[in-house]
Structures are given as structure tokens and as C-alpha cells.
Amino acid sequence: MVPGAAGWCCLVLWLPACVVAHGFRIHDYLYFQVLSPGDIRYIFTATPAKDFGGIFHTRYEQIHLVPAEPPEACGELSNGFFIQDQIALVERGGCSFLSKTRVVQEHGGRAVIISDNAVDNDSFYVEMIQDSTQRTADIPALFLLGRDGYMIRRSLEQHGLPWAIISIPVNVTSIPTFELLQPPWTFW
């Protein structure tokens, strides 16, 4: 018996680790919910870096998601003060995923969410891997779809807000599938 689309959705939500099922690779997913601003109050899906970065040892009920300035976070951040003890939202490009993670870590960030720089990407997760420098990072690093990152940044700009308030990680196994408030623009 082959599950239908709804069955695959449930399978993805319930599997705790990367596995191979029916020839398809299913990623580890980590979920976070935007609490504010309200127009993007959805549960977003991200994938952790494959071979660098830390893990979440605690759940943050309310923490700021601060867009980095400059967005690519390849060097000094002009808003680094606001990233300290918060989570940074960074754009892909300009330097390695690990370099971005280290910049945020050096500014005291608790984690980094790196969104794809292809704003039309609403379905393809990039596997973030170590660069060739042998450096390490201790904070969690997550990859976010480009459309999701764009919509978060756009909402913040429209509301004149310097950050979003999020809850991370969110345990979606305790939420019925029909109640998952996922972004309407994201492809499943």
C-alpha cells in the first residue's frame, strides 16, 4: 500500500531522523513558529546543517529573530548588538554557510537561520555542509526556504519592525496535521 499525499505529509512530520523510504531521502526538519508580526504567524520548516553547528538544548518560547545587516552576514554586522542572545536571519550568498554561522556566533547569537537567496524557492532545501577551512561553530545553523525568508523580511519591513518574535523549536508531533498553520505559499 502506497500512502497518498496526506500520508507522506504525516510521514515527514513523524519521522525523527533522516531515513530512506521508498527511494526518497527525507530530511531532518526543525520547526519554528513566528508569534509576531501576526500576518506571518505560521509554523515554518527548516533543516539543520549537516556537519557543523550545535543543537538546540532548550526551547525558546519567545526569542527575537533579527535580520542581519548586511543580510549576507559575511563580515562585521552593523546590527550585531541586536543579535546578541537572539537568533539571526541571514541570506545565502557571498560566503560559506559556516562563515555566516561563525559571524553570528561571534556577535553572541544563539542560532542562525540562513534563508535561500532565491526568493522564489518554496520547496527545495539545500544541504548545508562544512567548508574546507576546518573551522567549527557551536551554535545551531538552519536552512530556510527562500520564499519563507523573503516573506518574513517583507512583513518586518511593512510593519517597520527590527525583528520578529518566534518560538523555537516547535514539536509538531503534538499538533494534529490539519491544525498546522504552515505558510500558504509553501509547497508540500
TrEMBL record:
Primary role: Plays a role in the modulation of physical activity and adiposity.
The protein's GO terms of the molecular function aspect are: peptidase activity
**Which region is the signal sequence?**
1-21
Q: Which processes are annotated in GO (biological process)? A: proteolysis
Q: Which domain of life is it from?
A: Eukaryota
Instruction: Please give the InterPro entries that the UniProt record associates with this protein.
Output: PA_dom_sf, PA_domain, PRADC1-like_PA
Q: Can you name a GO cellular component term?
A: extracellular region
Question: Keywords assigned by UniProt?
Answer: Glycoprotein, Hydrolase, Protease, Secreted, Signal
Where does it reside? Secreted
* Cited SUPFAM superfamilies: PA domain (SSF52025)
Q: Which organism is it from?
A: Callithrix jacchus (White-tufted-ear marmoset)
Q: Which residues form the PA domain?
A: 65-149
Q: What is this protein called?
A: Protease-associated domain-containing protein 1
